[in-house]
Specification:
Layout (H helix, E strand, L loop, with lengths): L18 H13 L6 H14 L3 E5 L2 H11 L7 E5 L4 H9 L3 E5 L21 E5 L10 H11 L2 E5 L7 E2 L2 E2 L7 E5 L12 E5 L2 H10 L33 H12 L1 H19 L5 E2 L7 E3 L5 E5 L6 H10 L15 H7 L7 H9 E4 L7 H16 L2
Parallel strand pairs: 2-3, 2-4, 4-5, 5-8
Antiparallel strand pairs: 1-9, 6-7, 6-11, 8-9, 10-12, 12-13
Helix pairs in contact: 1-7, 2-7, 3-4, 3-6, 8-12
Bound molecules: pyridoxal-5'-phosphate (PLP).
């Protein structure tokens, strides 16, 4: 197929914001209440109902939610927390923030998610928790992970930054969670509020602790102290954090939540076009979805190059020359300077993680992409690979 380079740059990612979101934010601006207030509380309720959890606590990011989850579960200095290196730094930084030590387990080389069969070998008497990451919108094998967690009495804090709408064995991630589940509403995510996050749990004690920790450790309902009937009196029960969601985010979030099914359907259509357009290209491997991921959120569409005729970096450059934005999810966390320093020269055996990183590319995928956009990417991927 002949290359006709498109005029405009196709970004790797764009949020899907309509007049509805804009109007809702403007209404909130006019309401006089910008901070955490009634809209945050309403969004928390709607989100908990949507995923099927008892409690939801709005935060300013998934990073905050991941940190608070571990704090609320009592993870601290001297503890070890098992996680994956094939993730964004936030999943691991937040373990370090509690004073605990992250322990990396390799990924399943088919899915990019933590390999549950390699977890037990890394458990020691110091292990306190597991942080599995639902990579790209694929579900981790939760039954297996919770089976191990139950056996060793470990807390599970699921990182669902990519997994709003993902279903495991027919159940929404976050439905009746046995531990905690943290979501991201960052600008690139399937539900976007610019910055934002949510922690869900069925554990009342964890939810109560989280609510207190996200607003400095203030006693409950202190957000309301400037409204009529609110009290100026508050107490600090613990030295907490300033991590709460606020009403402008929640206003955006509620409209996005209402539109989630529609945005998800579009993601599914685009993923189908990629899959049927690229399935016969021998030089790439398409995402492999295990049976237990009954719904993939299609947060990312990650392809793996399996040819040595072109390097991953050259392939990305050639896509960029054709005005196609891409990304790489992820540079393994253990290869980052801070973690190399922390490891003090210790070499980790994470062969699947390292191989995965060498060959992956995330193609653009977001609801406002047109069929023409996605077909252009398909054709240019083929053109580049046929030309090497
Ligand atoms: C897997 C994963 N976990 C956590 C985060 C952190 O999310 P946030 O930016 O909402 O803190 C991200 C963000 O990209 C992520 O990809």
């Amino acid at each position: 197929m002949q290359t006709m380079i498109r005029k405009g740059y196709l970004p790797y990612c764009l949020p899907d914001i309509t007049e509805e979101e804009i109007n809702e934010v403007v209404d909130t601006l006019k309401s006089g209440w910008l901070a955490k207030g009634p809209k945050t509380i309403e969004f928390e309720k709607q989100f908990a109902d949507y995923v099927g959890a008892k409690y939801a606590v709005g935060m300013n990011s998934a990073t905050a939610a991941l940190h608070i989850a571990l704090c609320a579960a009592g993870v601290g200095p001297g503890d070890e927390v098992i996680t994956t290196s094939m993730t964004f730094a936030a999943s691991v930084n937040t373990i370090v923030h509690t004073g605990a030590t992250p322990v990396f387990v390799d990924i399943d080389s088919n899915t990019g998610c933590i390999d549950p069969e390699q977890i037990e070998a890394k458990i020691t008497s110091k292990t306190k928790a597991i942080v599995p990451v639902h990579y790209a919108g694929q579900a981790c094998d939760l039954d297996r992970i919770y089976e191990i967690a139950d056996k060793y009495n470990l807390f599970v804090s699921e990182d669902a930054a990519h997994a709003i709408f993902t279903q495991y064995k027919g159940r929404m991630i976050g439905c009746k969670p046995k531990g905690t589940v943290s979501y991201s509403f960052y600008a690139t995510k399937n539900l976007a509020t610019g910055e934002g996050g949510m922690l869900v749990t069925d554990d009342e004690e964890i939810a109560n602790k989280a609510r207190i920790l996200v607003t400095h450790g203030m006693s409950r309902n202190a957000w309301n102290r400037y409204a009529k009937g609110g009290s100026w009196m508050y107490d600090i029960e613990e030295p907490g954090y300033k991590y709460n969601m606020f009403d402008l985010q929640a206003a955006l979030g509620m409209v996005q939540l209402n539109r989630l099914q529609e945005m998800q359907s579009r993601r599914e259509t685009l993923a189908k076009i990629y899959t049927s357009g690229l399935k016969d290209v021998k030089a790439i491997t398409l995402p492999s979805i295990p049976e237990f991921t009954t719904t993939h959120s299609w947060h990312l569409f990650v392809i793996t190059l399996n040819t040595n005729l072109i390097s991953r970096n050259d392939f990305i450059d050639k896509l960029n020359d054709r005005n196609i934005g891409t990304s790489v999810h992820f540079i393994p966390v253990h290869q980052m300077t801070a973690y190399k320093r922390m490891l003090g020269g210790q070499i980790l055996e994470l062969p699947n993680t390292e191989k995965w990183f060498e060959n992956i590319v995330s193609l653009p995928l977001y609801p406002t992409m047109t069929d023409e956009d996605v077909n252009y990417v398909v054709n240019e991927v083929k053109n580049i690979l046929e030309g090497v």
